[in-house]
UniProtKB/TrEMBL annotation:
Alphabetical keyword list: 2Fe-2S, FAD, Flavoprotein, Iron, Iron-sulfur, Metal-binding, Oxidoreductase
FAD-binding FR-type domain residues: 2-106
Cofactor annotation: FAD
Domain 2Fe-2S ferredoxin-type as annotated: residue spans: 258-348
Residues spanning the signal sequence: none
Organism: Tenacibaculum platacis
Stated name of the protein: Ring-1,2-phenylacetyl-CoA epoxidase subunit PaaE
Amino acid sequence: MSQFYKLKIKEVIRETAAAVSLVFDIPTNLQSEFTFVAGQYITLKATINGEEVRRAYSLCSSPKSNIVKVAVKAVENGTFSVYANEKLKSGDELEVSKPEGKFLLHPEANKNYIGFVAGSGITPVLSMVKSVLESDDSASFTLVYGNKSINDTIFYKELNELKENYTSQFNLSYVFSRENVEGSVFGRIDKAHVNYFIKNIYKEIKFDKAFLCGPEEMINTASETLAENGFAEDAVLFELFTSSIDEEAASQVKDGQTEVTILLDDETTTFTMPQDTDILSESLRNNVDAPYSCQGGVCSSCIAKVTEGKAVMVKNQILTDAELEEGFILTCQAHPTTSKITVDFDDV
């Protein structure tokens, strides 16, 4: 189960007209709980209009900085994102989980990394950039960052300062879709752009790993293009904003009932649920304090293992084939397909 700690907001920084950074004050006795690896996220919990809301946000600070900082971009009709941008201020308290996640970069000497990101996808990758630049002067990071315009670009000033301070280690290229800027590329990050940077601008660099973060279409296109350019499958890591529905899996969801047994913190809870709803939602309705963050199938907070019965996931861009073979599921996307199912949150 995710453990939350009440933390005060030390600073709210306006990054763009639609995005803020939140810097948390970490008490000395919790410093060890909030050490993290570049690419990890934390879950923020708040009560908004009488309803508990949880959202996962990637850490954008350097792991060596002892700073816990996330960026929140307001989205249309977004409950927490709008609240963070319009209401939160220094001194406010939020409940915050320990860092977690599988989108990780462990810097190594003499390695060259490249990132293709769009919009707020910069947040985990900025942490990765800083981690590489601070680790060893033989390592490098090349960043291709897409936005509508300069004014929409989160961390524009900070990135440019990093470029000035780490000229030989950090390559920075912008792609703008609604503004022509000297020295940048116009459009959205697509196959032609990925080829342009790999085969032309940065053709002298042999990249060891690529990190992708942003919309699903961009990630799919970039992944396919990198594979065509010789990148091994395990050398391309990604994190999505949102994930699309697997129509074939969705067609397997039925209208029946399932008896569900949940094992969490060595306690067992059993209830009956309709198969056309997901296991996480029904667990929460039955007072099971199951771990979760995004509820959108793009993080791994709600992962559990099916030890009896079967379930189908309507979204999955997180779990590997090997993990699926072992019985792991994202409970927020999993629908039971058998009359009985046992789900173990402890065996993760």
